[in-house]
From TrEMBL, chain A:
The keyword Lyase applies. The gene is trpB. The modification N6-(pyridoxal phosphate)lysine is found at residue 91. Tetramer of two alpha and two beta chains. Belongs to the TrpB family. This is Tryptophan synthase beta chain. The beta subunit is responsible for the synthesis of L-tryptophan from indole and L-serine. CDD domains: Trp-synth_B (cd06446). Its EC number is 4.2.1.20. GO terms for cellular component: cytoplasm. It catalyses: (1S,2R)-1-C-(indol-3-yl)glycerol 3-phosphate + L-serine = D-glyceraldehyde 3-phosphate + L-tryptophan + H2O. GO terms for molecular function: tryptophan synthase activity. It comes from the Bacteria.
TrEMBL record, chain B:
One of its GO terms (molecular function) is tryptophan synthase activity. The gene is trpA. GO terms for cellular component: cytosol. This is Tryptophan synthase alpha chain. The lineage of its organism: Bacteria, Bacillati, Bacillota, Bacilli, Bacillales. Its EC number is 4.2.1.20. The active site is at 46 (proton acceptor), 57 (proton acceptor). HAMAP family: Trp_synth_alpha.
Amino acid sequence: MSTMVPDQRGRYGRFGGKYVPETAMYALEELEQSLDEAMADEQFMANYHEELKKYSGRPTPITHAENLSKRLGGAQIYLKREDLNHTGAHKLNNAIGQALLAVRMGKEKIVAETGAGQHGVAAATVAARFGLECKVFMGKEDIRRQELNVFRMKLLGAEVVPVSSGSKTLKDATNEAIRYWVANVEDTFYLIGSVVGPHPYPKMVRDFQRVIGDESREQMEDLPNKVIACVGGGSNAMGMFYPFLQDDVQLVGVEAAGKGIHTGEHAATLSEGRLGVIHGSITYLLQNETGQIQEPHSISAGLDYPGIGPEHAYLSETGRVTYTGITDMEALDALKVLSEEEGIIPAIESAHALSEAIKQAPDMAKDETILVCLSGRGDKDVHTIMEHLGGEVDE
Amino acid sequence: MNKRFEKHVDGRSDLFIPFIVAGDPTEEATIKLALMLQEEGANAIELGIPYSDPLADGPVIQRASIRALEHGMSLEKAMNIVPKMRERGLEIPVIVFTYYNLLLQLGEERFFALVRENNIDGLLVPDLPFEESEEWRESCKMNDTALISLVAPTTSDKRLTAIAKEATGFLYCVSSLGVTGTRTDFHSSVFEFIDRVKSLSPIPVAVGFGVSAPEQVAKLKEYCDGVIVGSAIVRQIEAQVDGLTNEETQVEAIDHIRSYIRDLISPYEKLKINT
């Protein structure tokens, strides 16, 4: 089944598609054609893998979280260390792929949206590496939350454009990036950061992130019993899950339950959203009764997205992947535990996946395994973590 | 074929099609603005439905959407304003301009029930491209509703031919890439593009995105059958928000906008319909 999607129209079952203004259609057609040609070009793919290896430092290792596993007394927890990528998260895998494609298409500028700033940093990084001009759209609210990443992007030579439309977060930054791209498509490539957006973006990002799952399959001695990853738009999860879809492995996606699903302040798109259109794709999204898109809440800027990649919506509907929710506080607890037990400070995003593993491990046998996608490192989150845990860490 | 389109749009080459956002700043102002636009020679009205994430729109219409949403406007409420316009003398076609998500949430059946009950004539969905619109084209046909199609300078010949063949009402030519909003100048290649569209279209061709000055209208008049004016009018409305909100100053505020419109479309030398 997984090999069947998306179809010619960019559909994953009833999800996906291309719901964009006519002005964007040419840009998507051009991209689709160039992407197909690049993916079929061995030299292009060889370049991509070479960059992953020599620039980003891949393959990333898998670490057995022995202390944590012992403490929980159940399944063995393994961590796919995407935090060890250059720039500190899985985002660079995709940014390298798309930047190489931009160069191949003869584009001189890239434009990107960013929430937590990780994708913005990845975009600014590859722009520097491949000699591209880079504009990153970022919500004003996120700029406030992620000062450090804003500075990193500027240091890398990118222009950070503050977005004050709508709710001033990731969805609005994405709107602005799309608007800008459509107006400047002749020389500009839109480097999207997740498995969202109109076809062929969800497919392209999945294919540039599947290296996470491909490597994991090779690195694990036996197939893991469970694979767990966090889901905002869902690119690390899609990249991790995709190579395991045909295997007898339980796949679990973890959404941000924010302050709790029942408080209304969360980003749990699959459990609380309804079918609709966001950023050019049919999927589940958080919206009010009449269809206005609603502001999500999560402590982590990277999961603070009101939609979800259309392939996740499809995998949820077919039942192949189970999706759960982890609250802000649960994620912070998991972050603290991993820091203390294993000496790894995870990104708050990744701590959502870890928290789910901590919940499930005790109910599993000691010879069973859980592979967690540790999508990024927590350095960017220290301010947020200090705000919430400050007192406790002081002890 | 829709009767109001037949009477006011078909076969004409001096089309003035204004766009306003429903509920910007109030429902009553929207009704009065629609009537004024008809008096000034509008051939149809695009009634914009405010949306939280208007991907095709620039800052002017984004702000208007926020104003309208603050008062709780919705697709259904906007459609229910139309009969009030009709009661007060609106005869020209009304085209509902809505993003696809709002339409999906209301549902096809409910939408067309409201179209029939409320004498609505057309639908324009800026984020529903030709490839995704087959089902809606069929249901619009069955309901005598024009589904307005857009073409852009980057639209390939192949798609342009397919779109023109299925288009109803009028064909909406996007003057430039990017979002709605006023522009001082058109790229010279735009006129070649309009020629290309004219040669393929069996229905009137109107140009929109960035039309904001009488000189532009005069120039476009030579190439196509009409203009669609959105942001330029919405900007005028924005400047008169206080006046439009207050009953005592409403007439004065409307007249301000009226004189702008009169000047803008002066190259068309329109005969007024209702005065």
